[in-house]
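Morning, I've got a small favour to ask if you have a moment. I owe you a coffee for this, so here goes:

…
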Amino acid sequence: MPDRQATLERDAAMRTLVAEVRRLHPPPKKAPNGTPLAKRLSRLTFVLPEDAGGCHVFLGSLNPSGHGQIGIGGRPRGAHCVAYEIANGQIPEGMVLDHLCRVAACVRASHLEAVTDAVNIRRGLAAMPLGLTHCPLGHAYDEANTFLNKKGAAVCLVCKRQRGRVWWAKTHVGGRDGISC
């Protein structure tokens, strides 16, 4: 198993490479109506060489977390979900897709695995920077107390709940329905 520092450096290099690919290869013009979904997806994909990870980088629009989006029936859908479903069938109930390559814009089906949310969070925590074991207020970043936000950053659930309580107290004078606790 590669050491953690090497993995973090590889992930940073891949993010830089993906950004450069997206800059140099703008997406093609919109496909005509009626174009099959698999063909639309392949038109919006740039394939990296195997020695550079072999990712299929989505060139279309990205959501705030860096995942590709493709329009289906006038609504955006995760491009990685569409690619997985074309190759493997429907994503099992209660499962989410994990990018084994750690590249959010990758739509290569062999780089995607259907896992539980807990496994996905655990893998994401394993990819966090070295030394980041506790939040700024000292709560442990562990499976029970950690949530990864849209940008992949760790969020302490204890602190998040406390911020919610403070917000509630500020916005609801006297507490719920005017009744103080």
User: Anything to note?
Assistant: The first strand starts at residue 45 and ends at 47. The chain has two domains: 4-129, 131-181.
